[in-house]
Design goal:
The protein is 40% helix and 14% strand. The protein is an alpha/beta fold.
């Protein structure tokens, strides 16, 4: 993208290399260390995307979610602590939005109250989006995927599978529970309480309205 190295990405790579060397010396990989390692991809991505937006004329900043997304210490499958997240997120995002700055936020990672990096488990980036939607009282949360929404059947198996225009939270959660890959069951839990709709859209067909997941 840039024909040059980004200094803040280089710093992360150095940090990652030091952690990997320590693990090699110890010959042991703890769940806590694994969460720290797998967080680096997201942290590098947000720096790259934010830099690209800034150079394209869109005011942007990157945000590591572990600065506000406080979780339990179940490494590999942490749960959000909403009252802590709400306090921290509203301060950070209010200021950015007032300055018309677009934040690019890491998905999938959080931190314990004492600052140790955690991850939210499979589907954790969608989960991060709905957690943010809840604490910021979003009008809608959009999840981008590679199909036109929640389908009537698996499009890889059934040729005439069609996207559903609407589906309820409960139906979507049941489909996920029974193996539909489009959403993780945890994704909907943050927004259900506040009745915030979730829209599933296709990155490769962005003009299509997709599926809207609502209470009824």
């Amino acid at each position: 993208l840039f024909k040059e190295r980004l200094e803040n990405v280089e710093k992360l790579l150095e940090e990652l290399l030091n952690i990997l060397k320590s693990i090699e010396v110890l010959g042991e990989l703890t769940p806590r260390a694994l969460d720290t390692i797998v967080s680096f991809g997201e942290r590098m991505n947000v720096r790259i995307i934010s830099e690209y937006l800034n150079r394209s004329g869109i005011k942007s900043t990157y945000l590591d979610a572990n600065s506000f997304l406080i979780t339990t210490d179940e490494f590999g499958n942490a749960s959000p602590i909403y009252n802590e997240i709400e306090k921290r997120a509203n301060d950070i995002f209010k200021e950015l939005f007032s300055k018309k700055i677009t934040p690019i936020v890491t998905g999938f990672i959080g931190a314990t109250e004492d600052g140790r990096i955690t991850t939210l488990g499979r589907g954790g980036s969608d989960f991060t989006a709905t957690i943010l939607g809840r604490v910021l009282n979003a009008r809608e949360v959009w999840i981008w995927t590679d199909v036109d929404g929640v389908m009537t059947a698996d499009p890889r198996i059934t040729e005439d599978a069609k996207p559903l225009p609407y589906i309820s939270y409960i139906e979507a959660a049941e489909l996920s529970y029974y193996g539909a890959k489009v959403l993780h069951p945890k994704t909907l839990s943050p927004v259900m309480e506040k009745n915030i709709p979730v829209r599933i859209k296709n990155t490769f067909n962005p003009d299509f309205s997709g599926t809207l997941i609502v209470k009824r």
